[in-house]
What does this fold into?
Amino acid sequence: MITVEHLSKRYGDVLAVDDLSFTIEDGHIYGFLGPNGAGKSTTLNIITGCLAATSGDIKIDGHDIYEEEREAKKLIGYLPEIPPLYVDQTPREYLKFVAEAKGVKKADIEAEIDRVIDETHITEMQNRLIKHLSKGYRQRVGISQALIGNPSVIILDEPTVGLDPMQIIEIRDLIAELGKKHTVILSSHILSEIQAICEKVLIIYKGKLVAFDNIENLGKTMSEGNQIEILSGGDPLETIELLERNTAITCFEQKEMIDGYNSFKLTTSNSNPYEICEELFVAFAGKGIPLVKLNPIKTTLEDIFIELTSEEDEDALYGGPEAIEPAEEKAIPEQEAR
Ligand code: ADP
Ligand code: MG
It folds into this structure.
């Protein structure tokens, strides 16, 4: 279990991590989701003991990352955003170096290397120079060094960045496999990636934790936001009648007329607003009502981040079933991360 309490990190004037508190339970794959610059790498570098925090407490299975550094670090395997590979070595040589550095007993080193090579499926590449490996294989070597010493938690910072689609699928499958034996924290700025692999997700935006939930609940939040703008040439009552008939339209509001057309903004529970556009097109055409504009607006990840951080949504924060300590009232006014 990892507990993070009131973690903050300041780089000069930049508040990169702003009072983060959360708990990671054993045995799940967690997604750490946020746009570029949100503070993901900073947080992961601190949790793994690679970077000092400005303030806050971190415990790995009860071991304080500063006071009991050795014990805490032993429990975590880390693949940083930029993996520390020595490209003039072979994977096998490199893994030997890592095993020694991590303090694996001399007698156990060869078996440990065999184990991680097998687990990351790099057997055929183990004696080639790392510089001659594809990016996908290099990333596997990066993951294999995180597995040396068999730590209970594996932390991977944006492991699929720069890979081609086929390599991405392979790395995702590998991560899913790792999730059966380890607690995994996977950071990404891509929602679909987190949705594909993770069971639970923490969303971080501008250094703050804005949501922590099961992936299904987050999916619901996402689809609730899809909207469609329409301009109808029919009279308002006729238009409203047609909109009310579509059960996937959860609500709509009439906007100001535009150039003599009735304007409406619809919200749909369908995660694909294009499907509703098709249905509306057919329904309006059937009644002979011209639709001169039919504009689906898919909620972007950025929209979700903004919505989650907006003040009126504050009740929805920390809405998940996770045991997160309620944030205490802050005595000091929040500082802008600028
Ligand atoms: P992410 O991994 O989510 O993209 P980072 O943790 O890398 O975010 O960065 C968070 C913020 O901290 C950004 O505004 C970034 O510019 C800033 N930052 C990161 N590392 C440094 C550093 N070494 N010095 C100064 N600012 C930094
Ligand atoms: Mg990063």
